[in-house]
Design goal:
76% helix; mainly alpha
Length: 71
């Protein structure tokens, strides 16, 4: 069981990893400290209002936009 403040930190770390790596969501889940994928997905959804996969896709679209704007 992960307490809410710790879960917040873990989800924040997961966001960074989702943005910066191609690691599978399941690997990131365990690397940031969650014991199972369902609990990770539930906490992520509560905090970010989207799934980890959707977050990764959105973050990458935003990255492409930033790169295009700076060109």
């Amino acid at each position: 069981f992960i307490r809410p403040p710790v879960a917040t930190l873990c989800v924040g770390q997961a966001c960074s990893m989702l943005y910066a790596t191609d690691h599978p969501v399941s690997m990131i889940c365990y690397e940031v400290g969650f014991q199972n994928l369902a609990n990770f997905n539930r906490n992520f959804m509560k905090m970010k209002n989207m799934t980890p996969t959707a977050y990764r896709a959105l973050a990458r679209v935003e990255l492409v936009k930033k790169e295009a704007a700076s060109s």
